[in-house]
Amino acid sequence: MTGYDDGKDAYLARLKRVEGQVRGLHRMVESDAYCIDVLTQVSAVTKALQAVALGLLTDHLGHCVVQAAGQGGDAADAKVREAADAVARLVRS
Asked: Per the record's keyword annotation, is Iron-sulfur included, yes or no (predicted)?
């Protein structure tokens, strides 16, 4: 079981919207849309993906990390490191 099982349908719906936004970006570039308009849409897609990532991270912390912390030991340490690494990747993006 994953930490996002309860919200899986919502994540899939969000990702489907992002997919549509990216297809729209493709059409904008193909049709030589104004640069700022394309950049505005890129920003919207980026924010949408960040929202998905933050939701997944929250679910991971609330389920996987909490579960591992309850077990303690090396498994808990590994999950905390894994979550910290994920946060670092998100912050660098």
From this structure: no
pLDDT of residue 93: 67
- Per-residue pLDDT at 39: 98
Q: Which fold has domain 5-92?
A: Methane Monooxygenase Hydroxylase; Chain G, domain 1 (1.20.58)
Q: Is the pTM of this model over 0.70?
A: yes
Neighbours of 69 (CB within 10 A): 15
Instruction: Report yes or no: 62 and 52 within 8 Å, Cβ to Cβ.
Output: no
DSSP-H helix ranges across 1-93: 8-30, 35-60, 66-71, 73-92
Tokens of 79: 């999950």
Residue where the block lists tokens 């991270």: 57
Cα 44 to its chain centre, rounded Å, is: 14
